[in-house]
Amino acid sequence: MRILFIHQNFPAQFRNLAKYLVATGKHELLALKQPPSAEFDGVGVASYKFLRNPEPNTHPLLKEMETKVLRGEAVADAVRRLKTKGYTPDVIVAHPSWGEVLFIKDVWPKIKLICYFEYYYSAVGQDFDFDPEFRESTFTGLARLRLKNTTMQQALEIADAGWAPTNWQKKTFPKWAHSKIDVIHEGIDTDYFRPNAQASFNIANKHINLTRQHEVITYAARALEPVRGFHVFMRALPDLLARRPNAHVVIMGHEKASYGPEPGGNSSWLEKMLSEVGADLDPERVHVVGFLAKEQYRAVMQVSKAHVYLTYPFILSWSLLEAMACGAPIVASNTAPIKEFIKDGKTGFLFDFFNTTELVEAVIKQLDAKQNRIDETTWAARDLIANDFAQTVCVEGLLKLIESESNH
């Protein structure tokens, strides 16, 4: 089967699927992405380029949409050239958020299109209106949010099938679209992300080597920003450190924001929060280590005695599931996407997102728990991931979806 991946940043969310398809040796795989082209063993990579730059005087509300149209136009141009060279896929697998499939059916109207439906924005009940500290309920903000869904609505219409990684993310989409969306996670490599009692994490510049013998509290996000509750976590630290004099805190993530703007007057949310609470944080016990290499990141999760995860009602991070697979005890905010995985007292402990006192109490409750209780919750969490979200299980589900659509 000829499979064409379309994703501006391939492999991204398609990495596990692509690796699995390469391993089978049964398929001809091609990825279309924005430059620069990256090597991916077993997958041919082609790039597309915008045919022109965005106009400087475009209406402010149309700037993001114009970029999506330009991207869709560039993809259509690239696939037309592929078509003239004799290439036609059996199925297209794409992430539609950035406009890449806007015009794909005008080139290949009968080719099966399967889309990754990651998230559908709403002004109510999701990330947009969740945090009163950063709420943008202006007309412009609401209008911009509405336009974000335009390409996704069009993709829902033209796609032959699709999937979302969690039940909650599927539920963000209109009910009329649910029949077109299966729930299939990208999957976690549970052979790699697994408990290791001998794990250690070395902080060379401080001459500190953390192991399972230490009281290690961890926090991880792609970026240190409000959507992942970084501000709430940082405000809880002075009290937490005062009450746990032997605890070490390891904070992992990029300093630059991913899902929103930087704070006014500061270069990053880390800088802002350190200006707010930094004077009360002991640098010998609070370790901001940046975005770690995979092996180091795993080691931190394996030595964790309490992994704190917060998120707005938004796309769920892989890091929560990876922490669960590593046997890190989970202390998490009681927001919608998390409650699909963390059942309070069974696979972790939950606290109110905005309540730093609850956060501190939940972490201390976890740190003081008896070992048999810790084992009970961490193994229940690990079993959930290993049984239902292991990479092989999820990828086989995706492959089944692709093959069933290509045979229709």
Q: What is the topological layout?
A:
Layout: E1 2-6, H1 15-24, E2 28-33, E3 44-47, H2 63-84, E4 91-94, H3 104-107, E5 112-116, H4 139-148, H5 150-158, E6 161-164, H6 167-171, E7 181-183, E8 200-203, E9 208-211, E10 215-223, H7 230-243, E11 247-254, H8 269-277, E12 286-290, H9 294-303, E13 306-309, H10 318-325, E14 330-333, H11 336-339, E15 349-351, H12 356-368, H13 371-388, H14 391-406
Parallel strand pairs: 1-2, 1-4, 2-3, 4-5, 5-6, 6-7, 10-11, 10-13, 11-12, 13-14, 14-15
Antiparallel strand pairs: 8-9
GO biological process, one term: lipopolysaccharide biosynthetic process
Organism: Nitrosomonas ureae
Keywords: Transferase
Structural features, described:
By secondary structure, the protein is an alpha/beta fold. It has 2 domains: about 1-185 and about 390-405, Rossmann fold (3-Layer(aba) Sandwich), CATH 3.40.50.2000; about 200-390, Glycogen Phosphorylase B (Rossmann fold). Helix content is about 35%, strand content about 20%. It has 14 helices and 15 strands. The strands form 3 sheets. The chain has a 7-stranded parallel sheet, sandwiched between helices. A 6-stranded parallel sheet has the order 12-11-10-13-14-15, sandwiched between helices. Helix 1 (about 15-25) links the parallel strand 1 (about 1-5) and strand 2 (about 30-35). Helix 1 crosses helix 14, helix 7 (about 230-245) runs parallel beside helix 8 (about 270-275) and helix 10 packs across helix 13. The longest helix has 22 residues, at about 65-85. It is globular. It starts with a strand and ends with a helix.
